[in-house]
Every structure is written in structure tokens, then in C-alpha cells.
Design a protein that fits this description.
alpha+beta; 434 Repressor (Amino-terminal Domain); 5 helices; globular
């Protein structure tokens, strides 16, 4: 495998639920309004059922005042 190729068996996980709690128990609706998305979109991102666009991912990070890497992480598929 070339040096710069990322393994294909990675999944994106997120810390949105934890960040919402740390931000004064912010609701999904409050976060959705801050980032210009629907509550359903936030719910699906938190549940790992939807991967946000890069723009939305940055807006979520900005809403919490953290880096993109603090919100989203790459992990091996299967949770290992």
C-alpha cells in the first residue's frame, strides 16, 4: 500500500453527544439551530448513520469552539 493511502476499513466516530453535555446540556435542537441543520440530521450524525459534509462538520466544531479533530475521529471498523 502506498505511504499516503488511508486504510479502507476505518469509520468516522464523533463526540457530539459528549460535547453537547459539556456545553450545558445543549439539546439537539439548539445545536441544529446554531449550525443550520435539522434536529434529525444532528440525531443521525450522533448515531453514526450519516456523515456530514465538510462544511457542516466545521460548523459543528465551531459551535463548540473546538477543532474538527475533537468532534470527529477515525477508528477501525468494528470498534477495535
Amino acid at each position: 500500500m502506498p505511504k499516503n493511502s488511508a486504510p479502507k476499513n476505518l469509520v468516522i466516530s464523533n463526540n457530539i453527544r459528549r460535547l453537547r453535555f459539556e456545553a450545558g446540556e445543549m439539546t439537539q435542537i439548539e445545536l441544529a439551530e446554531k449550525v443550520g441543520a435539522s434536529r434529525q440530521t444532528i440525531l443521525n450524525i450522533e448515531a453514526g448513520k450519516y456523515t456530514p459534509s465538510l462544511d457542516l462538520a466545521f460548523r459543528i466544531a465551531d459551535a463548540f469552539g473546538v477543532t474538527l479533530g475533537e468532534v470527529f475521529e477515525r477508528q477501525p471498523a468494528g470498534g477495535a
